[in-house]
Each structure stands twice: as C-alpha cells, then as structure tokens.
Amino acid sequence: xxxxxxxxxxxxxxxxxxxxxxSVSQLQYLDVCIKExxxxxxxxxxxxxxxxxxxxxxxxxxxxPVTCEST
Length: 71
Known about the structure:
By secondary structure, the chain is α+β, with helices and mostly antiparallel strands. It has three helices and four strands. Helix content is about 40%, strand content about 15%.
C-alpha cells in the first residue's frame, strides 16, 4: 500500500476500536485503491472467454461469426 494511503488511514483512525465497517467505507481514497486493484487483478483466474451467439455480430467494425471465442 502506498505511504499516502497508509497516512490517510492512520490519520482517520487513532485506535483499533475506531476501525469499523461504516467508518472504513467513508475512506474514499481507500475505496478507489481497492476498486482499481480489483480491476487490474481480477479475483477470477485468467480471462473469462466470451462466446458469440447466433447470428454473430460486428465488434469494432469486424464481423465475428457464431461460436467464436473472445477474451
């Protein structure tokens, strides 16, 4: 965790009993850090494939046939 985030947490809470779910949910910077970490490092292993269904479709201007897998 960055020193900036650590300092934010240390200034928000002076003692361990002060740390509660409602109080932690008020820390916007921590929330953004967690969301960005989950975006970059998903909790599921690997990329989940997406399968094109009937009748196919156009993705980014290119025709993609049925049952084609995309990640």
